Amino acid sequence: MFEFDDKPHDECGVFGIFAPGRQVARMTFFGLYALQHRGQESAGIVTSDGIVAHQHKGMGLVAQVFNEDNLAPLEGHLAIGHTRYSTTGSAKLRNAQPYLIETINGPLGVSHNGNLTNALDLRRQLLERGVGLSSTTDSEAITQILAAPPAIWGEAHNPQNGADIWVSRIRGLMRVAQGAYTLAILTRHAVYGVRDPLGLRPLCIGELDGGGHVIASESCALETIGAHYVREVEPGEIVRLDTSGITSIRGMIPERKRALCIFEFVYFARPDSRLDDAVVHEVRQQMGRRLAQEAPVEADAVIGVPDSATPHSIGYAAESGIVYTEGLTKNRYIGRTFIQPDDDLRQVGVQLKYNALTANLQGKRVIMIDDSIVRGNTCGPLVQLLREAGASEVHVRVASPPVRHPCFMGIDMATYNELIASNMDIEGIRQHIGADSLYYLSLPGMVGAVQEVVGGDQGYCNACFSGTYPIDIPEWLFEEDRSKLFFEGVWGT
Length: 493
Hints:
disordered C terminus; 2 domains; Glutamine Phosphoribosylpyrophosphate, subunit 1, domain 1
C-alpha cells in the first residue's frame, strides 16, 4: 500500500462481541469499520454458533474485504474481529488475523494488538516442542501458546473444581508473555478480553441494549453499533463475555506500574474515543494550549495538518488568540490505494495527498500545527506547499516532543535511523523542513496536558520521546537490520 505519510502506525484494532439473537458478524463489521484508522492492510472476522466456528479474512480495507455474500455465512452469536497494520511482519494474507485453529477444547480464535518483546524466545520454544508455525507474527505464537495445556507454561489446572480451562490457558500465556498485548479471544461458548499488565495498548467494554456485551480497542467502535461504554479493561485483567454477562478475573500476575502508550492521546486514537475516561479530542486541545504557552509567535493564522492535528490547532488558536482557519485540505483516500504512483506522480509528492487553500494563506504569517514529526518526509514539502500558496512566513509547532527512540510495543518506529530527531538537532530539522521557526511541545508539557484533562497521573509510556522503557528491551531489538530474523520466521508482528 502506498502512502505519503510521516505518521507512525499502530499495529491493529481488535473487536469482540457476545450477543445471542443479534447479527454479530454484521455488528463486528461496523465495529472494525470504526477502527479502520488503526490498520488498513487486512481485516478478518471469526464467529461461532456454539458448535462450529466460521471465518473470513482478506487483504485491504474492511469495506473491501467484506460484502453481503461473505458476511452471510458467518453465523453465530459470538464473534471477534481484527484490522491490521503490519509493523515488522510482512503484509501478506498468512499474517492477517484473527487466527483460527481447532483445539481439544473446541475452536480458538485470536485477535492481537501489540508486540511481544520476547517473541523470539517463545517462537523458539514452540518450534522446539514440534509446533509448526505458518506466519511471521508473534500473534500466531500467542494462539499456539493458548492452545497448549496450561501446565506447559507453568499454570496448573484442575478440571474437577469447575475452573475455566481457557482462563487457565490465558493465565499461562500471561506468565510467559512480555511486552504489549490486548487480545480478543473466541472459544466455543465465550469471548475473552485480555490486557497486558502494563496496559500498554487500550481495550474497553461496552453493553448492548437488550442484552450482549462488546470489547473493542476504542470506544468509538462501541458507539458505532449502539453499545454503551461501560469501562476500560484494567491492566492485567481478563474479562469473559458469555451467557452470565461480564465476568472479571483479576490478580493474574503481580501488579506493575501502568503504562498506557501516550501516543494514543497524541495521534493514534480517534478524537471521539475515550481513554482513561477522557475524550481524546479534549486532551489534544489541551496539548495545543500548552504548546501556545510554551512557543508563542506573532502570526496571522493558525492551521493544522489535517486531520490528526486539527484538535491541537484549535487549542493553540484559542490560547494564543490567533484566528484558526483551514490552510490545507486532505485527499483522504490517496493513502488507502495499493496502486503505486509512477515517477511523474512521485515528483508531485505530498500534493497527491494535500492541497493548499490559497485564499486563506496569501500574504499571511502562518503557524502550522502538526501532532508529531517522526521521519520528517512530509513536513518540509508541506511548508513549501504553503509558501507556494502565498504564505509570507511559516512557523511550525509540534504538539508532542521530538521522537528520538524506537518503539517495540506495537508501533512501526523500530530503528534510530528512521527517526529524524535522532539524527538532527532542532535547528537542523528546522533548516531541513524550511520553516521560519520550529518548536516542539516539551515532555512535561505533553504529560501535564494529559494529566490536566484525565485528572492525575494514571501512568503512561513515553519511551519514544524519553528513551525510558517500561519493560526490559532485548539488545538485539535495537539492531538496525533485523530482517534476517524476520525472514527466518522467529520474530515479528
